[in-house]
Amino acid sequence: MTFAHETVSRDERYHGAIFSVYSDQVTMSDGTTAVRDVVENQGAVVVVALDDSDRVVLIKQYRHPVGRHLWELPAGLRDVAGEDEAVTAARELAEEADLTAGRIEPLIDLHTSPGFSDEAVRVFLARDLAPVAETDRHERTAEEADLEVRRVDLDECVAMVFRGEITNAAAVAGVLAAARARDSGWTLLRTA
């Protein structure tokens, strides 16, 4: 007897450092089987860094697949085995924005494209920001070499989302979630 949504076979199509692609033969609810291409990804963390003046730290970074620079939030892959997600978020905040945070709390969780990818993203809220010492700053290379870092009022970030100026999915979700959490007096936040 076969059960619905069971993977009966898997063929690896591509294996890379960041993601792998498989074609799975999956049983469907009506008893048939279908091929579903799946991208397996390490997952990522994203950081809404909010300063004492209610400004969000945005970065502008070149993204080759879309051929342009995008406004985003500090973020990175969960590529260090066994590293706690909050530690990964703090590391990415330091590397991309030269900041530390006295508080890092989970904000929201996302499945970015569940129709074909298992990528899971946890968005953190970072507050009580302080600069990383000049001598301890990360040397940015490749597409990070020309990062533009800017602090923008949270309400203006929300407006940027609605004007189509922030289009990175995790940044859109993070900005809107942070605004809603702030407007609730931070009562919606969960513990780490």
TrEMBL record:
This is ADP-ribose pyrophosphatase. Residues 40-174 form the Nudix hydrolase domain. Pfam families: NUDIX (PF00293). It comes from Actinoplanes italicus. It comes from the Bacteria. GO terms for biological process: nucleoside phosphate metabolic process; ribose phosphate metabolic process. Keywords: Hydrolase. The keyword Manganese does not apply. One of its GO terms (cellular component) is cytosol. The keyword Hydrolase applies. One of its GO terms (molecular function) is hydrolase activity. The lineage of its organism: Bacteria, Bacillati, Actinomycetota, Actinomycetes, Micromonosporales. CDD domains: NUDIX_ADPRase_Rv1700. InterPro entries: NUDIX_hydrolase-like_dom_sf, NUDIX_hydrolase_dom.
